Structure formats: C-alpha cells, structure tokens
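User: Good morning. I'm curious how magnesium ion would be positioned relative to this chain. Could you predict the structure with it bound?
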Amino acid sequence: MATLAKKAAAEAVDELVPMLTRLQLTAIRDQLDTLLDQAARSELNLREALAMLCAAEVGRKNERRIQMGLSIAKFPFVRTLEGFEYDAQPSIDSKQIRELATSRWVANGDSVLLLGPPGVGKTHLAVALGREAIVRGYSTLFVPATNLVTQLARAHVDGRLEEKLIHFSKPKLLVVDELGYLPFEPNAAHLFFQLVSRRYERGSMLVTSNRSVAEWGGVFGDPVVATAILDRLMHHSHVITIRGDSYRLRSKRRAGLANQASAKSDAASSS
Ligand code: ADP
Ligand code: MG
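Assistant: Good morning! Here's the predicted structure, ligand included:
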C-alpha cells in the first residue's frame, strides 16, 4: 500500500508545476522551491506545510483582488488612512474614522457625508475609506459629482438613462466627490434624486461637499428635490463636518511661505 502511494507520488512530482498551473495556484507554483525549503527548515509537519502553502496562495489572490478593485474604483489619487494626520485636523474624531474604516457602514448600506471647506482632506478621507471598503470585499466606484451628473444628463438625452442608473447603482459603495463646487444644470437635481432613490437602502454612498447641508437647496437649484435627496441620504448616515484650515496652506505656512506671501501683500496694500 505504502509503496504504491510512494510510486504514484514519484510520478506526480514531474507533473507538479503543470498541476499547480492548472489549479491556478500560481503563488505556490512561482515560489515553490522557497516555500518547500522554508517548510523543511522549520520542520513543519505535512498539515502545517500545506497550511503555509495555502496561506501564500490566499495572500496573493487577495492582493490581486484588491489591486483589481482599486483600478475599477477610479480613485483620482492614492491615499490611505495611515497617511492621514489627525493632528492637522483637530475637528475630526479619529475614533469615528477608525470605526468607519471597519466598513460596517458599507455592510449596513449607510451613507457618509464629509462636509467642509476646500483642502481639509475630504477627498483624501473619501479615497482612504473607499480603499478600506475594497480591502473588505465591497465593490466601490469613485465619481466627481459634476462628472456623475453630466453622464446622467447625457444618458437621459440619449434615452439610455436606465442603463446609466444601473451602472451607478451596481457598486456596493458609490463615492460622489465635490458636490457643490459647481452649480448643477437644471434637471440635475431630478437625475441625482433618481440615483439616490435607486441606491437607497441597497448600497452605500459617500458624498463630499464644501457646502453645508442647509445650502444643498441652492446647489441643486430646487429645494424640494434637495430635501428629498437629503431625506434619503440622511436616513442612516454618519455626518462628519470638518472645520479648520486647508492642509496645503497649513504646510506652506509651516514652511514660512504663506507668511512671506502675506507680508508681501501687506507691503503692497500699505504702499
Ligand atoms: P478637500 O477634498 O477637502 O478639498 P483634499 O482631500 O483634496 O481636500 O486634500 C488636499 C491635499 O492635502 C491632499 O493631497 C490630501 O492628501 C492632503 N491632506 C489634507 N488633509 C490632510 C491630513 N490631515 N493629513 C494628510 N494629508 C492631508
Ligand atoms: Mg476634494
């Protein structure tokens, strides 16, 4: 019995690499000698060695999945929560951000509103939280608000609105960035409302805006529809209002540039 198994194994060894390829165990295949060496040196038993090989494969597959998710999400830049300096933005509760980083809000279909003036890190946090959602397996799409509305309006004209609404409803998390920077066109409010209704209690939205919620009526040019949009977004929501200075200006000021600039303008105005 033992010799039969030994004989079969000896024959299978020649086929090991093709078999790993066929099973798509490419991480094990590519690092086979190193992994087997490690297992031998650490005197792992068979079960432990098999677990180590599986862990290598799962690790690689996870990495690939995350890379794929990040490229599908179309983030405008790479930003992480590790790269966010809480000291620079005291109005942000780091505990609340850490809780959001668990992505439980995405699992629950809640919304997040990130509000505050330009440069305080809204897009940074939006991208970083989107990234955390992808790591935890939630499909994510990032879209600037004006771009979103332009796409919906164009699709509406072309009779393809339904198709576009489906496209933007599919991801578990939709990040809509910079709502309110530019005024929307007249039927934008209605189109945006349709999308928010479609996603309501199905998928999460993260919206960043430089306008307070009270100003959204003006942003949408239609207070009634703006209220209906807010009603849905705010139902299960986490609102983070960031107060304070622009991060860019702050770092310039640190370098003494802003002081020089203001000294110059003071000199210019007094002359
Ligand atoms: P907003 O979207 O609020 O206008 P951004 O998120 O685009 O601001 O931030 C502007 C720049 O400053 C980005 O490069 C961002 O990464 C950086 N930044 C802003 N706040 C912080 C912070 N607290 N820690 C680290 N980087 C920050
Ligand atoms: Mg921004």
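The two ends are 101 Å apart (CA to CA). The beta strands are 111-115, 140-144, 173-179, 204-209, 237-241.
Let me know if you'd like a different ligand tried.
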